[in-house]
Design brief:
The chain is mainly α. The protein has two domains: 33-378, no CATH class; 393-515, no CATH class. Helices cover 59% and strands 5% of the residues. The protein has 23 helices and five strands. It has helices spanning 2-8, 23-32, 34-56, 62-71, 84-96, 102-126, 128-136, 153-156, 158-172, 177-193, 197-210, 212-216, 222-243, 247-262, 267-275, 277-286, 301-322, 339-347, 353-383, 395-409, 421-429, 451-457, 470-476; strands at residues 416-419, 436-437, 459-464, 482-486, 495-502. The chain has a five-stranded mixed β-sheet with strand order 2-1-3-5-4, with helices on both faces. α21 (421-429) links the parallel β1 and β2 (436-437). It is globular and about 85 Å long. The protein starts with a helix and ends in a 20-residue tail after the last strand. Residues 1-19 and 512-522 have low confidence and may be disordered.
């Protein structure tokens, strides 16, 4: 920190002529108390990426709608993933009563939590100022900005990956029993965000066995108590996975096949490198890439090995695997938490007051400009180009019409919605009755739907267009269909959506499980 403090007076004017504010004093205070600047960064991230999507998106992103609809069922596991993100989304709705903005706030709370956890790890390794600089680099990475309004399993993982890296480092470097127990707890809960957290745990286990100092801790009882906590937390998830016949593995195989058929071989690697391009640009602007004498006290080798292994190892492995298997472009989202820390470990001796100021300015510019670009792009896509994106659908009017159609045709509350998966979820999202989604009309994929529930409560079918799709004919028979035109764009014509109420007591035909339609892209 002294290197930064000593150079402050050389480049900051003593007093601002505009407002009479001693800017050197303000900046010196921020540098001496990095938590203040970190708090400002988090507040700007939360404010911009919560308000902007809430203002421009007529409907939540698809994964968010799905999370809301599955979250209200409070199941442990679906055919796709564990359901911690769905529980968090449903909790946000119960606390606020809104589907309009809390999901965006929730997403940014996870991002900001990741910032804080990365800072804590980097502070232990590099000191406060290099830790702050490492976090200031993070908004320049694509995965911490543009995709974050779509709160899903990939982004729910982020703070868990950062926390596991921090806790493992502290525990392996001689931390007390609390660190091992916390590591076991966080590692177990992290699996409820997404199973791929297990990849980081595998890398952590290999580091624990290979690092002599950390391996020595295995002679104490505390790592084993932590492991017991992990198994206790994760065991309900393993049991649930067995009970649904390992359906998430089937989903993974289906999605893998879709990606292989629809994406180029280097697509995933290209997306990852593009997502890091802003990071490299900010590094260049900051001056951290300039030549300078070697540091007197370089970062110890064990720290560099840990940051490289835990910070780049999973990302590189998935990039290599993507050459042979289908890999989703967002799967790498939690894998770049430590990139900035690794860079500061290598070039942090070049960090001075000017470089820190440039990093802070670039971080704020990245957040404000990218959120502004997001607003412009989303609004233009829907209203100027007339291209239908998930966020363009008029979610509230669709739910209102769904309830109106149901209550005009059948007694009792609207309990189940089905048909086209995306539109059925939108129809049920804002509905006052909070209906359940009958996913793909397949009871294996929606175990909360039973034949008795269908018989006693009926179901509302929703699909796009005017005619009845062939796959719905067996369900609807001669039931009346209502088609409504919904305005969604300033340029494009209204979109027709059809509704048909299947009243309680209607006889339901058996469903052939093999004829279900999957959407592996989701």
């Amino acid at each position: 920190m002294s290197g930064i403090d000593e150079s402050i007076d050389g480049w900051l004017p003593a007093r601002s002529p505009l407002a009479g504010i001693d800017r050197s004093s303000v900046w010196r205070g921020l540098i001496r108390h990095p938590w203040y600047l970190l708090a400002i960064l988090c507040l700007v991230q939360i404010a911009c990426w919560t308000v902007v999507p809430a203002l421009v998106d007529a409907a939540p992103p698809r994964d968010v709608v799905e999370g809301f609809m599955w979250g209200r069922e409070w199941v442990l596991l679906t055919y796709k993933h564990p359901q911690l993100p769905g529980w968090l989304l449903e909790t946000s709705h119960l606390l606020t009563g809104s589907f309009r903005w809390p999901q965006y706030l929730l997403a940014q709370l996870t991002i900001s939590s990741t910032f804080v956890l990365v800072y804590l790890l980097a502070r232990d390794m590099l000191g406060r100022n290099r830790a702050l600089a490492a976090v200031l680099l993070m908004p320049s990475i694509y995965f911490f900005g543009w995709p974050t309004p779509q709160f899903n399993h990939d982004y729910a993982q982020m703070p868990f990956w950062a926390a596991i890296c921090w806790l493992l480092w502290r525990a392996g470097r001689g931390g007390g029993p609390g660190w091992w127990l916390a590591l076991g707890l966080v590692s177990g809960v992290g699996l409820y965000a997404k199973f791929s957290t297990g990849l980081l745990l595998a890398f952590g286990a290999l580091w624990l066995l290979s690092d002599a100092r950390a391996r020595g801790r295995l002679a104490t009882p505390w790592p084993w108590f932590g492991l017991a906590v992990f198994f206790a937390v994760a065991s309900p998830l393993a049991i649930a996975l067995y009970r649904i016949d390992f359906l998430p593995l089937t989903y993974f195989a289906d999605r893998d096949q879709w990606v292989m058929e629809h994406r180029a071989r280097l697509y995933y690697i290209g997306v990852q490198l593009a997502g890091l391009s802003g990071f490299l640009l900010v590094l260049a602007i900051s001056g951290l890439l300039r030549r300078s004498p070697a540091p007197d006290k370089p970062v110890e080798r064990g720290t560099l090995v840990y940051l490289t292994w835990m910070g780049l190892g999973p990302a590189i492995l998935i990039m290599v695997a993507s050459l042979f298997t289908g890999t989703g472009e967002a799967w790498g989202a939690p894998m770049y938490n430590l990139v900035g820390v690794l860079v500061l470990a290598l070039v942090g001796h070049r960090l001075g007051a000017i470089e820190m100021r440039r990093l802070a300015i670039c971080a704020l510019i990245c957040i404000v400009s990218m959120s502004g670009a997001y607003a412009a792009m989303r609004w233009t896509t829907c209203n100027v180009w007339g291209h239908m994106e998930p966020v363009c659908w008029p979610a509230q009017p669709i739910s209102d019409e769904a309830e109106a159609v149901w209550h005009a045709a059948a007694p009792g509350r609207l309990d189940i919605v089905g048909g086209d998966a995306d539109l059925a979820m939108l129809a049920g999202l804002n509905a006052y009755d909070k209906p359940s989604i009958f996913t793909e009309l397949d009871m294996r994929l929606a175990p909360w739907i039973t034949r008795q529930r269908l018989r006693e409560h009926g179901m509302l079918m929703v699909w796009p267009g005017n005619g009845v799709p062939p796959q719905l004919q067996a369900w609807l028979g001669n039931l009346p269909v209502k088609t409504v035109l919904f305005n969604w764009s300033r340029k494009a014509p209204p979109v027709p959506i059809s509704f048909a109420a299947i009243p309680p007591g209607t006889r339901y035909l058996p469903i052939d499980a093999d004829s279900r339609t999957r959407h592996p892209r989701s």
